[in-house]
Amino acid sequence: MSEKTKPAYGGQAVMEGVMFAGQTSYVTAIRRKDESIEYFELERKESKIEKRLKKIPFIRGLVALVQASANGTKHLNFSSERYDVHPKDDETIKKEEDSSKLAMALGVGAVGVLSFLFGKLIFTLTPALVAELFRFAIPGKTGQVLLEGLIKFIFLLAYIYLISLTPMIKRVFEYHGAEHKVINAYENGKELTIENVQNQSRLHYRCGSSFILFTVFVGILFYLLPFVATEPMWWRMVNRILLLPFVIGVSFEVLQLTNKVRNVPGLKVLGYPGLWLQLLTTKEPKDDQVDVAIHSFKKVLENDKNASKNGIQGSKVIS
Q1: Less CB within 10 Å around the terminal CB: N or C of the chain?
Q2: Are 26 and 44 in contact, with CB atoms under 8 Å apart?
Q3: What is the average pLDDT across 221-240?
Q4: What is the per-residue pLDDT for 5?
């Protein structure tokens, strides 16, 4: 099967493991304290409305990101509860889960979505507020918008760099690298062995890190439009909030475009800024981390193979 005909898989690094989103399921594999590997699986279900919306350009990005936030939080919750607990103590975890099963089912996904939206809102509004402080030196609209974009870019780099200094996040970034290596090996038709996967790049065009960077660039273009004001300040804030869905939608399409042209000479450079950012958000993984990622991905492939007998299909996701 060629790369063009292969379904697009993506994933997310979690605590001591990797979550992969397949066509029919979401699977997380983590390394437990006793070196064993444990799985957490969720069936990939979408309503008819969700499926229809995900076929509409500029809207499908919003739907995909909300789904990714909701499901990603469930898998993060699973990994954070277990990665540093010895399996012999699982009974304690089980009792806690049973006592709050309904709350978990209703609340974890919602928390993930709200956290994503709140974080994106803060990341959008704060640079505008800071840029406004320098209006005495840079009063024009173009200067203000460019300054706002520069501040947002600096905030993004500073945030990623500072959290990468913590041992825990460094481990997560290593698993992020393992996730990309596995996807690259699969898309390049390589057998999923530790050696083959380690020989792949830890960077990938269809990465959420690239998407975040594209929102900065796309935001600048939107804010430069004649009908988008930078003053008074309160109206500037309102504009940023109202434009947020459009910025996200267009950025998602840019991400998909850079992935489609990644093998086209002259056009593949469009995705380079996102790849450069991934030099910060991914680290070279160790063999045991790649092993966990391979286990997770093989389980996803197994689920898709079994489901294909019933004619079940899925959709693309961000890695």
Answers
A1: N
A2: yes
A3: 92
A4: 54
CA distances from 14 to 27, 162, 178, 246 (A): 11, 18, 11, 29
- What's the CA gap between 297 and 309, in Å, rounded? 19
For 128, other C-beta atoms within 10 Å of its C-beta total 22
Angle between helices 101-132 and 233-260 (to 10 degrees): 110
pLDDT at residue 251 above 90? yes
Q: What is the mean pLDDT of residues 52-58?
A: 86
Amino acid letter, residue 43: E
Q: Which amino acid is at 305?
A: K
| Average of per-residue pLDDT across 137-161 | 94
Tokens 């792949």 correspond to 200
- Separation CA 155–CA 149 (nearest Å): 10
CB atoms within 10 A of CB 79: 25
DSSP secondary structure of the chain: --TTTSPP-EEEEETTEEEEE-SSEEEEEEE-TTS-EEEEEEE----HHHHHHTTSTTTHHHHHHHHHHHHHHHHHHHHHHHTTS-GGGHHHHHHHHHHTHHHHHHHHHHHHHHHHHHHHHHHHHHHHHHHHTTTTT--SHHHHHHHHHHHHHHHHHHHHHHHHTSHHHHHHHHHHHHHHHHHHHHHTT----HHHHHTS-S--TT-HHHHHHHHHHHHHHHHTSTT----SHHHHHHHHHHHHHHHHHHHHHHHHHHHHTTTSTTTGGGGHHHHHHHHHH--PPPHHHHHHHHHHHHHHHHHHHHHHTTT--------
Q: Which amino acid is at 167?
A: P
Position 102 scores a pLDDT of: 40
